[in-house]
Amino acid sequence: WIMGLSARMFGFSSFSLLLPQALMGIATVALTYGAVKRLSGHGAGLIAGAAVTVTPVAAMMFRFDNPDALLVLCTTAAGYMVVRALQSDRGRRALWWLLGAGWLIGLAFLTKMLQGLLILPALGLVYLLCAKRSWWTRIWHLLAAVASMIVSAGWLIALCAVWPASSRPYIGGSED
């Protein structure tokens, strides 16, 4: 969808298809730097951002037109939001950060299905074990984040289920 929008805006070319991929790579590096900087300082953030930049698979992934770039961006942004939720001094602000993380994991699910959910147990355990809130507040926040994820991932699935089969477009390569 993102590459399609870029092609509509800039015309169909290699540049218009690869520009979003490159921007997703830059955003992933920036979010990695931001998350690590919040936990371990500026130097560690620079090292983490550089590690993402020079990792061969990341360098290859952000140079081609495939959904992996969006998947990595969504999961990295979700991790950043969990770090922000852990550092929030107010419970309501932490909840909003977790709702955002759940929303991004739902988008990651729509990008590459179950691969988008791979980090979900780790993010949940980190918040459950490390947040400075009561156990019930942590559990309630995590349940709200799961609901956000379900809404974020479920709208397309629900829309496909209720759309009349006679006018349904091909979805996920299926022909029926």
The coarse silhouette is flat
Spans of at least 5 consecutive residues whose pLDDT stays below 50 are: none
Radius of gyration: 18 Å
Q: Supply the number of helical segments.
A: 8
Q: Write down the overall mean pLDDT.
A: 90
**Gap between N and C termini, in Å?**
21 Å
Tags for this model:
single chain; mainly alpha; 8 helices; flat
Structure description:
The structure is a single chain. The protein is mostly helical and 176 residues long. The longest helix has 28 residues.
Topology at a glance:
Blueprint: H1 2-10, H2 14-40, H3 42-54, H4 56-61, H5 68-87, H6 91-112, H7 120-130, H8 135-162
Helix pairs in contact: 1-2, 2-3, 2-5, 5-6, 5-7, 6-8
Q: What's this, in brief?
A:
With 176 residues, the protein is mostly helical.
